[in-house]
Amino acid sequence: xxxxxxxxxxxxxxxxxxxTLASYEARGGYDALKKALTMAPDxxxxxxxxSGLRGRGGAGFPTGMKWSFIPQDNPxxxxxxxxxxxxxxxxxxxxxxxxxxxxxxxxxxxISSFAIRGNKAFIYIRGEVLHVIRRVxxxxxEAYAAGHLGxxxxxxxxxxxxxxxxxxxxxxxxxxxxxxxxxxxxxGQPRLRPPFPAVAGLYASPTVIxxxxxxxxxxxxxxxxxxxxxxxxTEKSKGFGIFSLSGHVNRPxxxxxxxxxxxxxxxxxxxxxxAGHQLKFWTPGGSSTPLLTAEHLDLPLxxxxxxxxxxxxxxxxxxxxxxxxxxxxxxxxWTEFYKHESCGKCTPCxxxxxxxxxTLAALEKxxxxxxxxxxxxxxxxxxxxxSFCALGDxxxxxxxxxxxxxxxxxxxxxxxGGCPFDASxxxxxxxxxxxx
Amino acid sequence: MTSAxxxxxxxxxxxxxxxxxxxxxxxxxxxxxxxSAQGRITPEGIEACADILGISAAEVSGVATxxxxxxxxxxxxxxxxxxxxxxxxxxxxxxxxxxxxxxxDVGNDETTTDGKVTLEHLECNAACDYAPVMMxxxxxxxxxxxxxxxxxxxxxxxxxxxxxxxxxxxxxxxxAERVLAGFPDGRVDEGPAAGPxxxxxxxxxxxxxxxxxxxxxxxxxxxxxxxxxxAVEGARVSDDKQAEQAAVEEKAPTTTTAAEKEDAE
Amino acid sequence: MxxxxxxxNGVERTDLVSVTIDGVQVSVPKDTLVIRAxxxxxxxxxxxxxxxxxxxxxxxxxxxxxxxxxGNGRGFPKPQASCTLPVAEGMVVNTQATSPAAxxxxxxxxxxxxxxxxxxxxxxxxxxECPLQNQAMSNGRGESRFEGVKRTYPKPINISAQVLLDxxxxxxxxxxTRFSEQIAGDPFIALxxxxxxxxxxxxxxxxxxxxxxxxxxxxxPVGALTSAEYRFxxxxxxxVSTPSVAEHDACGSAIRVDHRRGKVMRRLxxxxxxxxxxxxxxxxxxxxxxxQQPDRLTYPQVRGEDGELRPASWPEAFAxxxxxxxxxxxxxxxxxxxxxxxxxxxxxxxxxxxLGTNDVDFRARPLSSEEAEFLAAEVxxxxxxxxxxxxxxxxxxxxxxxxxxxPEDEAGAIFLRLRKAHQQHxxxxxxxxxxxxxxxxxxxxQAIIAAPGAEAAVIESLLEQAxxxxxxxxxxxxxxxxxxxxxxxxxxxxxxxxTGAKLAWVPRRAGDRxxxxxxxxxxxxxxxxxxxxxxxxxxxxxxxxxxxxxxxxGRDADAIVAALVDGQLGGLVIGGVDPDDTSNPAATRAAxxxxxxxxxxxxxxxxxxxxxxxxxxxxxxxxxxxxxxxWEGRPRPFEAVFSNPASLPDLRILAGIAEELGHPLGFRxxxxxxxxxxxxxxxxxxxxxTPSYSSGGGAAGAMGGVRIASWKQMVDLGTxxxxxxxxxxxxxxxxxxxxxxxxEQHGQLVTLTGDRGSVTLPAVINKELPDDVVWVxxxxxxxxxxxxxxxxxxxxxxxxxxx
Lengths: 436, 265, 803
Prior knowledge:
The complex is a heterotrimer of chains A (about 425), B (about 260) and C (about 800). By secondary structure, chain A is an alpha/beta fold. Chain A has helices at about 20-25, 30-35, 40-50, 65-70, 95-100, 100-115, 130-145, 175-185, 195-200, 210-225, 225-230, 265-270, 305-310, 325-340, 345-365, 370-385, 390-415, 430-435, and strands at about 80-85, 120-125, 160-165, 205-210, 240-245, 255-260, 280-285, 290-295, 315-320. The mean pLDDT of chain A is about 95. Chain B has about 260 residues and is α+β, with helices and mostly antiparallel strands. Among the domains of chain B are: about 5-65, Arc Repressor Mutant, subunit A; about 80-170, 3-Layer(aba) Sandwich (Glutaredoxin).
């Protein structure tokens, strides 16, 4: 029997007091660390390379390769920084992972730091998730007490300290160089690259920055072997990942599966689109990944499959919207988000999002003309690839993709003299009221 | 109404800076502690941070005004956030927010006259599978409705103990800020490991006996079968797209694409 | 190690990279940014955030270009910012000139920039010289498609007493904040807020207090930053620009004087990579209104029978002055330190040729004979071509030692260059100083603490401590203040000689270095000729066309003052001397009173002109050509900004008096003087010996009380800063810096009492100061420390003045 879902990271989330060291160790937690400490650091890097693990924070850069960029002949300290600033709209996997099983992350941090020969690691968690921060703080404290952290870890001669760092509200800090700025106590504005963080990152020292899920996957790779990990997934998108379903499905939530699963399979597992409705549009990996529609339900959810459809796998943040939802309203709201989160550093993102919101808001109210759609597309063209970092690019994704798929719906706002949709039909309780 | 930073707080601010190889790294948590001690970012707090870190107050101010969790106006005992990013808004967040504004008679980022509740609409808080979501002092309040939201703020204002839907008893905003500054409050073991939506996939897997392969089981049968079409599709991806894809690493700049590719090779 | 002048600007030509820009192949040094390589190909790529002296930031995105080949056969799929991209061999760049994609990208960015930019060009100070306006015309769309709501702010806000910010005009290029942080080290402006609401701001209680703040205005590519002094005063197209040299310190900074109808409207930094790069101090920029004050002298005056000064014609004044000086007998000459090298030569010539005396001194400040010997032996005739250190040497030196010099206050261009040296090249800055000043900290410097008067011993000890790295690769800069520290100049010279380090003397005033060359010293003739050397006297006499020159060394300034008071001297020719600057202000005033005949050459009415018998108005630097010689020994000639026939340089006046005296000087014009100076040339004979004074012991607290450490802050009560109250309002608050024990004993307000009076100021604790030393600014309260508090080298008592 083929296992469609493959719980690894989520496997212990249902355990009694899963966040505690005792619970984690009871099911073999920190065994991978003990194994890793007997390995040569370069062999760990090779194992992660061989596993085919690609960054789980959105872009899919091979994790092992990233680690191998750290110049070991550089006399400066090496740092591991975990990007736990999960903020991309729709993305909600790292937060439950850290809340339920923070030790998975901590163990991953220790092994990963050992591999890159770092003696200090930072976990940068967005500030708006208090209980998650508590759990990670406590896990780090427990790990120290158990000798998994500190000096001469388990007699290996290896030292590591972890600092848990709370952010303070800035989506842009998910961009790795902006995160470093935040971690250095500055405004979270992205840095010029090169130099790349691997060469000059935190404190201008060689730095690896990885997403929570990437680092949390490391203990399983070290424990079970690269081949085990690579046996899951597709040719170029190996392994498993957490797929987050939200919106108009019957059972939204976290589904851990090999990369390459289709949305149709996932929606089936989630009990289908809510009763009486049909899927209209969805994001494969957060709002920065171009929208897809029901015609894309059978595409493999892996890096290549999504790229082939002109979008991106991103963070596997599958936000599903049914036919009650006005795509113009949805896109306007995302655009307002990008305007709010634009760091202000570069012109096209700062001024472009300011203007996009005004143009979209007018269209949603039924004001303007069809030529405004071309204006919107041209504004997007002037932002995409022109802005300093990917935030500006992301801001154009929902607009260009929605105009591509739903041009008529935009025009309907003009002919209707406003939004033709009833927003109340989209709410979580709309169906229930109807049934009641 | 602000008062001086106490010696104790000053020492704690210094201890935060001391956690890092370079003291300035402590600034974000230090500002959280200023909010805990002073109820907002105060001039005294800015000056204390500048003093401890040896940077200008303008530089501290630049940081304090960049991050949205830092507040220049006093915040109520309970910071009530309503997610109105697209998914939560569509799922009812807009309606909840409108209802609360009306019920509390405040606008966005305003505090009720009793000083209890500060209402703010939020961007995505990474709990989309629990939409529509609210946050109280940055604790999750999942699957809200206008009715539950009104009941929630009424309970908060009346001093009733409120518990996060998948977390601990709610503390005050200033107590929460202290935890963010790195001073745990002992509530870590309250609440479950995960809420129901977080466990839904796991539940199905358990129910159907689905697991990841065993460690010595190399071939799996767990992989999605290779579809012939897929390889073709992959090959069709233009250089342009691939380059962009590679560069969006953790939302990274696309603008250094070629260079980054070079770096990667 | 020797680096000859300017060679650091000549890039090593070994690492050239060939790139093709708009079809034109150019070779540029490795690491050149595409935006600058394009300039060499004759293509101007529009830009805002880019500035060649600031680190690349890539923020405005205006300079996007198309790179079809990055040099590796592959191109960039999207336009690239040319201000952050270094060239690579074989790279192909297509700018807006040849690439429709680049042109569209640039137009798109420009349109975005204008979305939130007001259309107030007609009332904006920048209009007519605005990079945004100009580039919107050259690289923008004809019409905006934006019909929405623009961001607005209440206007304007003061970010300092001098600098104003109109936020809605700002394009957020961050040049100003980056300048303040990277170049000046005064990060008191920062980007605040976020996204479209991002703006430049200060902390509410901390304005942009920086001696270099005006540079932010000059590099602002829009009209967002303006000065209170110039705001709404004129339009750029009404101005005439004349290059000149700043007169406020010995740095020789290039400036541009913008004027309209005979009046200076503003001054800007000139661009001289070898000297001040593109930066000047706020004093250089804003302090020019001193020459436009109502007390400016505009005609000669002579004292009439009634004892009152009355206007006189130039010929009459020359005649009266000559008669009076003849009658007065022995006459001394005090020149002050602000004259040009040509005027200094005229004073020197006048003393020797017309008055037959060596009683001439430019040092209108505390001085010593050790200093005169030091200047003769170690300073005169030094020049970059003969191994004297330069700005470039400061940048390349491994170690720079500051002795009795606070560059941030006393020599702004040196301060900026040393800060750059430290940041970019890791230069170690050491200062023998009473404490580690903020300026020193900004240069990453280390203080070797020395109480005033005790410097000599500390300087001697530098030699023994190898860890300080004072060796042949070091540069030693000596400030004029060391003159009053016995043995210190001797020790500095010895340190340089023993280590092989380069040595330079950095006076405060623009004219001091030229006055040394011109021989405005009692022991030195022009061109470094020692008065005591008969051959040197013969050489100078021949050049001047006189038979003999006085052979006895003259009196120095203090001795001239004393001789006037006790009647040994009768006459005084005095130009540009403020008695309060001198080592004994009361004595100097008394000398002016006591002299039987005083000829004063001055710009404005002063206590000296009021007491003089003949008063000649002299031309300010804007009205005459001249030369300032920098601390490096580098001549900085400049031409007159205005042609004002009634405004005569000192040299023309001295020539007129000399002719009436029957001893023509052989020149009447600046050009004449330059020719005579060239003719006389440098002395090629035996140089005087380096002084070897021993330290005076400088025993701490020997006399009881505490010693005064003091120097002039850049912005203070100096008369050449008169007229711009905005500038003066940016001065640092005067305080007394006191060691901890004194602070604990006396509290936050203290009164210092010395042999000349008392001063009460707020006290600021400084833990590095020696126990018996306090620091006060030399000229920030009252008439200054020398007039109101204490004589040089004396001690004061401290008392708490708090409630």
